[in-house]
Every structure is written in structure tokens, then in C-alpha cells.
């Protein structure tokens, strides 16, 4: 097992957001966390990456409890986050955005990361603010890959993207899966997530309300209607 989140409680100020949340990601698995807006998906990823550490519970990465480690230490252990906001620096070119993320000894040098994103290669000298939503998403994923992660956390990668671009993001996720990168994929877009996932969790009000395979979730209209706001 690469990641095991055990009964974490996470707060934003006084707000008690995650309530005894547990989940796990096995080596090489794509696990999806689905849930409505405000359910606690981003907070879960922030808890894992040390940006908003939990007050109670444990988070084991490759068997070590990482709660309390600073975000850069957690990143160095091999966990990379592609944030919801994508975090592309608008006044830096795509190339500069990538260069500041490079790390010596990464198993994926710049050239090999770019091979996966031929479209990105064409816009390397363009400033971040002139990139399309899809290009920014690809840049954010490419940047995360430069750190050579073994666990990739993706926060709503399909958000705001045209269907064709969503397909391209999905293709990238599938390629990474083939290379045995473990992934925790947070989505509101249940369709894409269910096509990619080995296992699915549904979160509501900071707690897991469903765990199972995509087909088990599809066969459970009560869950999809109550917690995902889509018809069964
Ligand atoms: N920085 C913050 N300060 C206070 N409350 C926050 C903050 N970030 C998120 N929240 C609250 O935490 C809850 C979960 O948010 P979030 O994890 O972003 O949900 P999701 O990603 O599922 O949409 C929401 O009620 C949200 O209002
Ligand atoms: Mg979110």
C-alpha cells in the first residue's frame, strides 16, 4: 500500500471539515474521490500534502506517518499535487514554469516529460497567462511529473475544460497508470472519473459515504442521486 489515510479530522479555522476520513491507495492504483462542491475533496488533498494538516488521525505514506511534516518534505518523499487552481505562474513562460519545478535525480527529465505533451512543446515560450485552460492543465501535470512522483494527486483536472481536452487529460492519466504511477483523482465529473478509476470513494460533509468499484457505484442510484447530484 502506498497511501493510507486513517481517521483524519481536519479544520479550516473553527470549521471542522474532515470527520474521521479514511481512504487508501494501493501501489499502481487509480483511486477516485467523488463528491459535491464543498464536500471536502480539496481539504483531503491539502491534508495529505501537509498544506492543511489534520489535527487528529494518521496519514501513512509507504508505511511512515507523514502528519506534521512540512509540505516540501512531503513533496520530496514522492507525493505531487496538481492543484485545482493549477498554480501556473502567469508572467513566466511555460518553459520557465517547468524549469523552476525541476529537481535533480527525478526519474523523468524535462525532455521525456515533454514527449507526453506534444501540444505543450509548441507553446513553451508562451507566458502562462496566454495559455488556454487545457494547456495550463497539461503544464500543471507536466510540472508535477518533473518532480518524479510516485503518488500523484489531481484536484479536478477536468474542471472548465472542453470535452476534447478532458479526453486528452484522461489519456495522460491512463498512460501514467500504465507506468505504475499511483493516483488519487478528485473529481466532480463522475463520468471521467469512473472510466479511469480502479476504486472509488464518495465523500459528503467530510466523511466517506461510499467505497467500491466504479460498477458498484453505477449500480447504486441512491448514492449517485444523494451525493453526486446525478441521476442513477
Ligand atoms: N480556507 C478555508 N477557510 C475556511 N473554510 C474553508 C477553507 N477552504 C475550504 N473551506 C470549507 O471547507 C469545506 C470543504 O471545502 P473543500 O475541501 O474545498 O471542498 P471541495 O473541494 O469538495 O469542493 C467547505 O465548506 C468550504 O467552505
Ligand atoms: Mg475542491
Describe the structure.
The protein has 232 residues and is an alpha/beta fold. The chain has a domain at 1-78 and 184-232: 3-Layer(aba) Sandwich (Rossmann fold), CATH 3.40.50. Helix content is 35%, strand content 26%. The protein is built from 10 helices and 10 strands. It has helices at residues 41-48, 71-76, 94-99, 110-115, 118-122, 133-146, 163-178, 190-196, 214-218, 221-228; strands spanning 3-12, 15-25, 30-34, 56-61, 64-65, 79-82, 151-155, 182-187, 199-204, 207-212. It has a 6-stranded mixed beta sheet with strand order 6-7-8-3-9-10, with helices on both faces. Strands 2-1-4-5 form a 4-stranded antiparallel beta sheet, covered by helices on one side. Strand 1 (3-12) and strand 2 (15-25) form a beta hairpin. The two termini are 32 Å apart. The mean pLDDT is 90. The structure holds adenosine-5'-diphosphate (ADP) and magnesium ion. Adenosine-5'-diphosphate is lined by residues 12-13, 15, 17, 35, 37-43. Magnesium ion binds at residues 41-42, 84, 155.
Amino acid at each position: 500500500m502506498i497511501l493510507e489515510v486513517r481517521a483524519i479530522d481536519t479544520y479550516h479555522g473553527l470549521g471542522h471539515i474532515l470527520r474521521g476520513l479514511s481512504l487508501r491507495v494501493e501501489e499502481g492504483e487509480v483511486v477516485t474521490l467523488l463528491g459535491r462542491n464543498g464536500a471536502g475533496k480539496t481539504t483531503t488533498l491539502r491534508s495529505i500534502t501537509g498544506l492543511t494538516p489534520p489535527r487528529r488521525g494518521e496519514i501513512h505514506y509507504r508505511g511512515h506517518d507523514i502528519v506534521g511534516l512540512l509540505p516540501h518534505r512531503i513533496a520530496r518523499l514522492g507525493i505531487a499535487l496538481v492543484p485545482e487552481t493549477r498554480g501556473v505562474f502567469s508572467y513566466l513562460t511555460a518553459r520557465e514554469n517547468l524549469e523552476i519545478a525541476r529537481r535533480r535525480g527525478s526519474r523523468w527529465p524535462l525532455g521525456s516529460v515533454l514527449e507526453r505533451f506534444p501540444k505543450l512543446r509548441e507553446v513553451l515560450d508562451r507566458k502562462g497567462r496566454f495559455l488556454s485552460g487545457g494547456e495550463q492543465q497539461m503544464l500543471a501535470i507536466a510540472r508535477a511529473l518533473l518532480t518524479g512522483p510516485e503518488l500523484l494527486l489531481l484536484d479536478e483536472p477536468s474542471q472548465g475544460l472542453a470535452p476534447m481536452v478532458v479526453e486528452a487529460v484522461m489519456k495522460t492519466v491512463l498512460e501514467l497508470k500504465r507506468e505504475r504511477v499511483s493516483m488519487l483523482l478528485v473529481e466532480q465529473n463522475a463520468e471521467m472519473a469512473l472510466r479511469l478509476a480502479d476504486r472509488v470513494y464518495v465523500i459528503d460533509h467530510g466523511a466517506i459515504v461510499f467505497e467500491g468499484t466504479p460498477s458498484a457505484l453505477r449500480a447504486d442510484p441512491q448514492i449517485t442521486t444523494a451525493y453526486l447530484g446525478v441521476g442513477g
